[in-house]
């Protein structure tokens, strides 16, 4: 195309007061109504942020440099922008929007940057940890639908750190996956496996995000937890974690993942359980009843929540595939 | 420090509705009141953006990838985040905040990414361009204060592209600076030099920002212009440009730099001027009267504008060094 021939709303003589409407106007050439709406809100908030803070050139330049360094440190195994999204609470919001939970279902929480696709498939009772320094833990759980029916054949992806607070991928010299397993629930919706008691650990804090936390006087620690991801045809993916009560970081998680309903008290394996599950008496015991939500329930709830949120905003929008776009009719 | 001992407001059981106040609460540990305020507004707008768009996980991930690519493409001579700030209109806002202009003074505009510190010092009448393909241009200007007094010894940094629309630094095989000069105004506030008629050109559009513009159906062109930067002790830096009237991109500048008062009509050099300035009769002629603002006027106006903007917001803040911080008294 000859760009000078594109029909464009005339934009000239811009001031701090009229630039927002003019940038939105020129962006409205976009053919994708959803992208147009996302950009409209992005530009509005970006501009309001600068106007409300009276952002100085030096601060703006510090921001440019921060974003540049954040991009530079990213590699195939390190995503500093996701970490930034996590510590600013954005990741939790996006998860809440995409995976809303009705009452009496298990809440989701942040995925974090350490999920991999190389976890070995395990059978009931196997040990996911090879860490001899960890405190032995028996995990006995079940998974149901909201009506209380056990769900058979749910694929459950589990991952945790070793006893030093590092995921397997954080060890440069690792020989293979550790602290990970993928297991299927049985006909009673049950699944059980051996692991180690989770420990608290810091998120990677030797980069720009770590420096930001330091300036904010925030610590980089996450409370002890174990990750669970549930998949079954017809049900919304559930990405969640269980947290240990009374962890020193229980109320100050660096990535805002803790929810009351996901905090558990560990028990101890008694002699009957020890015999049944083949683990030493006195080992730690973690139990939980997970509840999945159907795809249909989730998508209805997502659309309903969108409608409510946009009504608050007083904007004329339509909801298409659960996502709002401007309503021009 | 032992991070578990830091006194932290308890943060737990976060939802999409209460996370913003909780992230702000934990960030309020920050000892720098200005940074605390900037982060408070950043978190508020970031969260509202996600809530109002109902940002999906896929869109969030697309954003993460876009920012990562934008960081990756940055080099010592390419700053893609500044380009992003330019095409989103943010750069213009920051310039307006930091360098507010009272009536009867020359307006500023975007610096752009092509200013360098290697321009040669030139004397009155010298030619800043070595491009034989450019159309010869005589520039005759003066610079005054707001009372109309000529300003002597103002340092004026000038830069423009060659006739192909490229700055010198964009040519990998360049032998030295071209299209640049630093000149001093004389005792009458006057300065004149030879150059070439500016031409329109595209901003670098082979990276993430170019892809974004394409998706938005926006062209990457800037209208023909020449950059000027003025420095004199006691006066606010003036970063501005002169634009040629009737340029095809005059009303659709990709970086929103054009202002009515900075658009000029080129004239033609007559025989008298040709003899006086030693340039061929019929060459292009550009004239302009620049007006600088004192540091004191600027800083008073900046503080006043901040006060007005924050009153609109209904926030209790104090203005310190022209910048707002929360007022806790």
Automatic annotation (TrEMBL), chains A, B:
Any GO MF annotation of the entry: ferric iron binding
Cofactor(s) this protein cannot do without: Fe(3+)
Gene3D superfamilies the record matches: Aromatic compound dioxygenase
Oxidoreductase among keywords: yes
Domain spans labelled Catechol dioxygenase N-terminal: 32-104
CDD domains assigned: 1_2-HQD
Domain annotation Intradiol ring-cleavage dioxygenases: ranges: 112-292
Taxonomic superkingdom: Eukaryota
InterPro entries reported in the protein's UniProt record: 1_2-HQD/HQD (IPR039390), Catechol_dOase_N (IPR007535), Intradiol_dOase_C (IPR000627), Intradiol_dOase_core (IPR015889), Intradiol_RC_Dioxygenase (IPR050770)
Alphabetically ordered keywords of this record: Dioxygenase, Iron, Metal-binding, Oxidoreductase
GO biological processes: catechol-containing compound metabolic process
Annotated family: Belongs to the intradiol ring-cleavage dioxygenase family.
Listed name of the protein: Catechol dioxygenase
Organism from which the protein derives: Talaromyces proteolyticus
């Amino acid at each position: 195309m000859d760009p000078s021939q594109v029909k464009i709303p005339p934009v000239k003589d811009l001031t701090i007061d009229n630039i927002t409407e003019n940038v939105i106007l020129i962006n409205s050439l976009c053919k994708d109504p959803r992208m147009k709406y996302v950009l409209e809100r992005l530009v509005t908030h970006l501009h309001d942020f600068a106007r409300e803070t009276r952002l100085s050139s030096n601060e703006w330049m510090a921001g440019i440099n921060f974003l540049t360094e954040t991009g530079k440190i990213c590699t195939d195994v390190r995503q500093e922008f996701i970490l930034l999204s996590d510590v600013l609470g954005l990741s939790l919001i996006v998860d809440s929007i995409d995976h809303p939970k009705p009452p009496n279902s298990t809440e989701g929480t942040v995925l974090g940057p350490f999920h991999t696709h190389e976890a070995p498939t395990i059978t009931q009772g196997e040990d996911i940890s090879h860490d001899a320094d960890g405190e032995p833990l028996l995990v006995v759980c079940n998974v149901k639908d909201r009506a209380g029916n056990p769900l058979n054949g749910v694929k459950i992806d589990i991952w945790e750190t070793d006893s030093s607070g590092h995921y397997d991928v954080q060890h440069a010299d690792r020989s293979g996956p550790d602290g990970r397993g993928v297991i299927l629930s049985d006909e009673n919706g049950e699944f059980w496996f051996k692991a180690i008691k989770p420990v608290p650990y810091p998120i990677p804090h030797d980069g720009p995000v770590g420096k930001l936390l330091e300036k904010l006087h925030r610590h980089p620690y996450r409370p002890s937890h174990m990750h669970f991801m549930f998949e079954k045809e017809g049900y919304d993916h559930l990405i969640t974690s269980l947290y240990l009560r009374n962890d020193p970081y229980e109320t100050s998680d660096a990535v805002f993942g803790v929810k009351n309903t996901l905090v558990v008290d560990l028990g101890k394996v008694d002699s009957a359980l020890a015999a049944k599950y083949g683990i030493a008496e006195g080992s730690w015991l973690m139990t939980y009843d997970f509840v999945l939500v159907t795809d249909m329930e989730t998508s209805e709830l997502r659309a309903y929540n969108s409608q409510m949120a946009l009504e608050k905003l007083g904007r004329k929008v339509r909801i298409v595939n659960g996502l709002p776009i401007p309503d021009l009719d």
